[in-house]
């Protein structure tokens, strides 16, 4: 049963006994971390995975062992995708549309975290532009390829608690830049995107959801100072202790990717649609003062009106209507 899974469940445990033969899945960010593990687990259970990455050579190296675990017709092919360039995003989407084959799930996994202030090729703040707008254009351009009964799974983060989206100043033109606030905005946007995408596509049987994979030591923290991660964990543990909670525990990659595959192929669609999950469970709304790693989702991240407003702003920013 899906309710038997938790924080320590792994991808193979979640998919145990599930044959994904004939299922086709797009996974972004397969050059490192949980993107590689997500692809591996799906291929090992029979899925045909299209792995997208900015650096194809790096992705090829990172996924070199994935094919050896393929079963029941599982396979992996790589496609180029630069989420920080709308030209690159559109080129990737156009190629997938021209190919014409449908997807049973799209797992929007790629992202950056706590980057120094900068801009994408199109002038968007780096984290909002890469994490949200790049996926917004990609997914909407290939939306018709998602088969009825299929799902969009957005990998967000508990980091969404650091900030709601700022629709009036998404690029920090008037707001002092804070890398964690910028990350929080982009992750809230990932959740809101799923909420509105689900509303727009559920009538044809396509649902959308978002999730927090948990804390995993990956390249995602490469922009933090050498001792930055340790200092952050020390602060979190102090807060957890004050709340009477146990200390933070890192997840392995198979544990971190478990919620992605659970949300895509195990959890009932109605359970996760337009919701936010973590530890292979749907999260409760929590607007109180909680630790960044305590379970819960901010209500603003699931607000349907906020989701509609972000969608309209995103269309305006990218110059494209969906």
How would you describe what is shown here?
The chain has 322 residues and is an alpha/beta fold. The protein has one domain (2-225, 252-318): NAD(P)-binding Rossmann-like Domain (Rossmann fold). Helices cover 38% and strands 14% of the residues. It contains 11 helices and 8 strands. The protein has helices at 11-14, 33-44, 56-62, 86-99, 126-141, 179-201, 228-242, 253-256, 258-265, 269-272, 304-318; strands spanning 24-28, 48-53, 75-80, 103-108, 146-155, 207-212, 276-278, 281-282. Strands 3-2-1-4-5-6-7-8 form an 8-stranded mixed sheet, with helices on both faces. Helix 4 packs parallel to helix 5 and helix 5 (126-141) packs parallel to helix 6 (179-201). The longest helix is centred in the middle third of the chain and has 23 residues, at 179-201. The protein is globular. The chain starts with 10 loop residues before the first helix and ends with a helix. The model has no long low-confidence stretch (mean pLDDT 93).
